[in-house]
Amino acid sequence: MEKLKIGVLISGRGSNLQALIDACAQPDFPAEIALVISNKADAYGLERAKAAKIKTKVIDHKEFEKRVDFDYEMHRALEKQKVQLVCLAGFMRLLSPWFTKEWRDRMMNIHPSLLPKHKGLNTHEAALAAGDRTHGCTVHFVRAELDAGPTILQAEVPVMPDDTAETLAARVLEEEHKIYPEAVKLYAEGRVNIIDEEVFIAGAAA
Ligand code: GRF
């Protein structure tokens, strides 16, 4: 079986990267991680990748004058490893319109809210402040606008009366680690179709 080559972009802890590493370690999983790129040299996710013997590359955004130059450097590294799908996993840089166009429909992100609710940072605090009864996470295709783009999968969790941002984040994170590998699997199986900016999953119940 020819596996789909993925490139994972990180900036930190890398627990979602770990979920992808673990999924890819299953012999029948249809994707493999060809490269992990971090914009931070001290990102813990790099250790995770190295432990799994995955190729890593640090590209420090501070060394580039223009955002698009940094993005081009990442693009070249991804192309070199013949990456077919880019997975953003806690990657804390905004991407240029050029990069998002180049990887359109070939780049996913995981966001810790039920998009379109609570875009941006501090989503757990926002869900609590809004008095939401449910919260969750979303895997979506990336567009030039922040935290926008067709939703591939979402997972919902209840918000408990005594939740803090930390307890809520932990409950959501557990779901992130399930739906990100699942979305990659569906994509690798060629089951993710985008029609008029909406995702349809082949073989899924309507
Ligand atoms: C996750 O909550 C993810 O949804 C968000 O950033 C966080 C990254 O965590 N985009 P990790 O680095 O994957 O542990």
Description:
The chain has 206 residues and is of the alpha/beta class. The chain is built from 6 helices and 9 strands. The chain has helices at 15-24, 44-51, 67-80, 97-102, 123-129, 165-188, and strands at residues 4-10, 31-38, 56-58, 85-88, 107-111, 134-141, 151-158, 192-195, 198-201. A 7-stranded mixed sheet has the order 3-2-1-4-5-6-7, sandwiched between helices. Helix 1 runs parallel beside helix 6 (165-188). The radius of gyration is 17 Å and the shape is globular. The model has no long low-confidence stretch (mean pLDDT 97). Residues 12-17, 89-90, 110-112, 137, 173, 176 line the site of 5-O-phosphono-beta-D-ribofuranosylamine.
Proportion of beta-strand residues: 15-25%
Query: How do the strands line up in the largest sheet?
Result: 3-2-1-4-5-6-7
Figure out the total of helices: 6
Q: What is the 3D shape?
A: globular
Structural class, judged by helices and strands? Answer: alpha/beta
* Ends distance: 29 Å
The H-and-E topology, N to C, reads as EHEHEHEHEHEEHEE
Low-confidence stretches: none
Q: Tell me the total number of β-strands.
A: 9
Record keyword descriptors for this entry.
two-stranded antiparallel ribbon, 6 helices, 206 residues
In short:
This protein has 206 residues and is an alpha/beta fold.
Present the secondary structure layout.
Elements: E1 4-10, H1 15-24, E2 31-38, H2 44-51, E3 56-58, H3 67-80, E4 85-88, H4 97-102, E5 107-111, H5 123-129, E6 134-141, E7 151-158, H6 165-188, E8 192-195, E9 198-201
Parallel strand pairs: 1-2, 1-4, 2-3, 4-5
Antiparallel strand pairs: 5-6, 6-7, 8-9
Helix pairs in contact: 1-6
Bound molecules: 5-O-phosphono-beta-D-ribofuranosylamine.
